[in-house]
Amino acid sequence: MIAPVIRVQGDRVTDASTTSAVANIGVVGLAVMGSNLARNLASREGNTVAVFNRSRSKTDELLAEHPEAEFVPAYSYEEFAASLAKPRTAIIMVKAGAGTDAVIQALTEVFEPGDIIVDGGNALFTDTIRREKAVRETGINFVGAGISGGEEGALNGPSIMPGGPEESWVTLGPILKSIAAVAEGEPCVTHIGTDGAGHFVKMVHNGIEYADMQLIAEAYDLIRRGTGKTPAEIADVFAEWNKGELESYLIEITAEVLRQDDAETGKPLVDVILDQAGAKGTGAWTVQTALSLGVPVSGIAEATFARSLSSHPEQREAASALPGPDEVFEVADADAFIEDVRQALFASKIVAYSQGFDEIRAGAAEYGWNIDLGAVSKIWRAGCIIRAQFLNRIADAYAETPELPLLMAAPYFADALTRGQAAWRRVVIAATQAGIPSPAFSSSLAYYDGIRAERLPAALVQGQRDFFGAHTYKRIDKPGTFHTLWSGDRTEIEAEDTH
Ligand SMILES: NC(=O)c1ccc[n+]([C@@H]2O[C@H](COP(=O)([O-])OP(=O)(O)OC[C@H]3O[C@@H](n4cnc5c(N)ncnc54)[C@H](OP(=O)(O)O)[C@@H]3O)[C@@H](O)[C@H]2O)c1
């Protein structure tokens, strides 16, 4: 009798008694993200990577361009399944939506119970919840994993946010750890929670990214219009900021973009790029989900709306004759103004992240996920677009108080807001007086003032609701629910709580 071949691959021991089942991991979808992720996997010790793409040409191209990766190509789903050692593990990197459903369907037909299908695309978390439920019926494990960092991250080390069943993490964990970015010696991947938790957290990551980018853009605009500095000079300002508490990938690339001149015209590139920002939808998902959860992510919402506003040229044209303020905007002390803007940016950024983490907290409560918010901030420290030193402070805050009700109230952030609030107010006032749109700066400040207020005019809103709809109200001085007989003698009665 011939003994089965036992192959040791990374931390896994697999039965590879069938000669063709040589790969410990497979990738389906070999466009930009999939091909880079497959190359990343192949470059790590112990991995043999099976690859498959719907149209053959992408597979052949990848093989021809990267013979060093020693990929195991497959040209049908059957061949792909046969090339994988058990439990079969495949990462799907195809167009989100119908493409993902089609590939999942095809894989479930050739995979067996215990195998693992990972969707690494940008799926909406509710789709992931639905898919996980359907795939689970077949005995196959389904994992929705958010992967951030674009093509560069996929190749050299992304930040990975996997959801799905805990059992799948045993097999998948070592593989994902081997390809993830590393921050201070720790791989930027952790099991986020069950079913759609990974894609939920990736969605909020993207929402925070929208807010961060918009805040930086507003800072640039204010400095440029207030001080008359050129984009290249402002690039120096951002490069300097990148040495301090604002240190982050987005600040770093902002300096690069501002320093770039257009080869054709010789003008700063930022001046020849059409000022209409696109979006792929994850910002909108973050806001839509926050609205359903009742979480005020106003910074993310304003950033998403700012992109929409920019992308309506016909409306902008129609509004172009509307007047702005008469005075010319010119700051008296450029250095002092720039420092104010820096502080306003940091304060607003704290609000945006606090709101994003609030959404994750609320999502976890709604969907029954046990999400470690400190671990989430740690896996964003490298590989992803919002990577920054700042995330260490968030991890510290949750390490100190895991049940923190509001991130921005943690001591480090509260101190920063206390130090920055005067500058923040000066900047919002200056922008308002100058007629320079700063929706993310000003909405963050409004959130700060709202959430810290001892008393809000929400009391009046409750009075109005009771007046026109008998929606009732509660009192500050005694328990119970009340209604005033507005159309009667205006006496107050106890009532059923109708919210
Ligand atoms: N690009 C980024 O920076 C980035 C960052 C993070 C996450 N993502 C996500 O990663 C995923 C892949 O992105 P991408 O830019 O590499 O590719 P993509 O342009 O979103 O999708 C193209 C790939 O999907 C395949 N595909 C589409 N419909 C299919 C179907 N019905 N059956 C089988 N395959 C199908 C295509 O196969 P054919 O070659 O046969 O057409 C091709 O391999 C997406 O979900 C994307 O949102 C992208």
From TrEMBL:
> Which Pfam families does the record associate with it?
6PGD, NAD_binding_2
Q: Is NADP one of the keywords? A: yes
**Reactions listed under catalytic activity:** 6-phospho-D-gluconate + NADP(+) = D-ribulose 5-phosphate + CO2 + NADPH
UniProt keyword annotation of Repeat present: no
UniProt: substrate binding residues: 122, 148-150, 205-206, 210, 280, 307, 465, 471
- GO BP: D-gluconate metabolic process; pentose-phosphate shunt
What does the UniProt keyword field contain?
A: Gluconate utilization, NADP, Oxidoreductase, Pentose shunt
Report the SUPFAM superfamilies cross-referenced here: 6-phosphogluconate dehydrogenase C-terminal domain-like, NAD(P)-binding Rossmann-fold domains
User: What GO MF terms are annotated?
Assistant: NADP binding; phosphogluconate dehydrogenase (decarboxylating) activity
Q: Which Gene3D superfamilies match?
A: 6-Phosphogluconate Dehydrogenase, domain 3, N-(1-d-carboxylethyl)-l-norvaline Dehydrogenase, domain 2, NAD(P)-binding Rossmann-like Domain
Q: Where does NADP(+) bind?
A: 29-34, 53-55, 94-96, 122
Residues forming coiled coils: none
* Top-level enzyme category: oxidoreductase
What InterPro entries does its record include?
6-PGluconate_DH-like_C_sf (IPR008927), 6PGD_dom2 (IPR013328), 6PGDH_C (IPR006114), 6PGDH_Gnd/GntZ (IPR006113), 6PGDH_NADP-bd (IPR006115), NAD(P)-bd_dom_sf (IPR036291), Pgluconate_DH (IPR006183)
The EC number(s) given in the record are 1.1.1.44
Q: Where is the 6-phosphogluconate dehydrogenase C-terminal domain?
A: 198-487
Highest taxon listed in the record's lineage: Bacteria
Q: Where is the active site?
A: 202, 209
Family stated for the protein in its record: Belongs to the 6-phosphogluconate dehydrogenase family.
Quaternary organization: Homodimer.
Q: What function is annotated for this protein? A: Catalyzes the oxidative decarboxylation of 6-phosphogluconate to ribulose 5-phosphate and CO(2), with concomitant reduction of NADP to NADPH.
Protein name per UniProt:
6-phosphogluconate dehydrogenase, decarboxylating
- Annotated source species: Microbacterium paludicola
